[in-house]
Amino acid sequence: MLRRLYNWTISSAQSPYALWVLAFVSFIESSFFPIPPDVLMIPMIIARPSRAFVIAAIATVASVAGGLFGYYIGAVLMETIGQPILALYGKDASFAEMSAVFNEYGAWAVVVAGVTFLPFKVITIASGVTGLPLSVFIVSSIFARALRFFLVAALLWKFGAPIRDFIERRLGLVFIVFCVLLIGGFAMIGLL
Question: Against a cut of 0.90, is the pTM above it?
Answer without folding.
Answer: no
